[in-house]
């Protein structure tokens, strides 16, 4: 009876190891498979970087008397850096369509920013007033996606 029990335990352990190997394999294969999840991860990363950067910038403005032009320029830099980080995150898992993923990240990031701004300011969103921001998000996201895809291809 010990021989049968021992054989059964060995099979069970072997089965568990096989299960673990197949799970690791499926996780590795699943990386980068869902383009939508990658884009959403990029948008969330970009939004979180924006929130942190704007909070830090607001603290700095307590001591620094900046002009409106400087504030606008810094806000644009924060947007570009956030979109770049979001696109890099969306492309980290691999996959195809770097420019398309970048455009989607840029568009969704800017749309989320516009909606949050309108909610905070109590305005109704008017798409015509924010088309330039949406276009900038699409253009910069697509450009960053192309650059990062080309850079990854040559590396």
Q: In words, what does this structure look like?
A:
With 155 residues, the chain is mostly helical. It folds into two domains: 30 residues; 121 residues, no CATH class. Helices cover 83% and strands 0% of the residues. It is built from five helices and no strands. Helix 2 crosses helix 4.
What is this entry, summarized?
The chain has 155 residues and is an all-alpha fold. The protein has helices at 2-30, 35-61, 68-91, 98-121, 131-154. The chain contains five helices and no strands.
* Fraction of residues in H or I helices: over 70%
The backbone outline, from C-alpha atoms, is globular
N-to-C SSE string, H for helix and E for strand:
HHHHH
Average the pLDDT over all residues and give the rounded result: 82
Cα Rg = 23 Å
Helical/strand content category: mainly alpha
What oligomeric assembly is this protein in?
A: single chain
Main sheet: strands, sense, barrel: none
What is the β-strand count? 0
Strand content: under 5%
Unreliable parts: none
**What separation lies between the terminal Cα atoms?**
59 Å
Secondary structure layout plus pairing:
Blueprint: H1 2-30, H2 35-61, H3 68-91, H4 98-121, H5 131-154
Task: For the structure shown, list the relevant keywords.
155 residues; globular; single chain; 0% strand; mainly alpha; 2 domains
